[in-house]
Amino acid sequence: MKDKIIKKATDMFLKLGFKSVTMDDIACEMCISKKTIYKYFSNKEALIEEGTEIVHQNIHCTIDNIISKNYNAIEENFEIVKMMRDTFQTYEASPVYQLKKHYPEIYEKLIANELEDCTDLFTQNINKGIAQGLYRKNIDVESFVRFYYTLIFSIKETIQLESESLKLEMQALEYHTRALSTSDGIIELEKQLSNINNT
């Protein structure tokens, strides 16, 4: 039952907003008593925290699956961004923006996890691209990782509409890739941009 509550509540939070959905709403949607929810969760914040952690884990599991398919470094990044678009484009309000605004403590915990995971992900991608001749050699990998992370999360934190956030994230990926790329990388980037524009 606990897993069912988390799944339903998280879906409602993402679709309707973390702030606007109440415990009564969740209970009504699931045709259970509010007491049943409180059996597993002391309050709404505890439910949001567990739900966001599961979303975080699921996203990174999907990213690991994308990486396992051995795309080249640039294609890999585009596949990850496409996955994020497919996952979140049906939601009106940006989940990250909402968390930061209404539940800052939960947001800070989420960001601490994301910082570690994204640092590893971006570092591996840049090193892979260098090895493949798509990214330039002798770059400061740590600085590029920090630049990209800061850019992506400044978008997520400050843009209220998820559709606008996803659009800017795609532009940030293009910006990041152009800054890193060799001539071969630029060719691959243009190919990926063309594929995106044709879908």
Textual characterization of the structure:
By secondary structure, this protein is mostly helical. Helix content is 79%, strand content 0%. The chain has helices at residues 2-16, 23-30, 34-40, 44-67, 73-88, 95-102, 104-131, 141-158, 162-180, 183-197. The protein has one domain (46-197): Tetracycline Repressor, domain 2. Helix 4 packs antiparallel against helix 5 (73-88). The chain starts with a helix and ends with a helix. It contains ten helices and no strands.
Q: So what's the overall shape?
A: elongated
Report helical residue fraction: over 70%
- Which stretches are low in confidence, meaning pLDDT under 50 for 5 or more residues running? none
- Given this structure, which CATH class is correct? Mainly Alpha
Per CATH, the superfamily is: Tetracycline Repressor, domain 2
Q: Compute the CA-based radius of gyration.
A: 19 Å
| Quaternary status | single chain
Which class do the helix and strand fractions yield? mainly alpha
Task: Report the total helices.
Answer: 10
Mean pLDDT: 90
* Secondary-structure element series: HHHHHHHHHH
CATH architecture: Orthogonal Bundle
Largest sheet: none
Number of strands: 0
CATH fold name, please?
Answer: Tetracycline Repressor, domain 2
Count of folded domains? 1
- Give the terminus-to-terminus CA distance: 39 Å
Task: Work out the strand percent.
Answer: under 5%
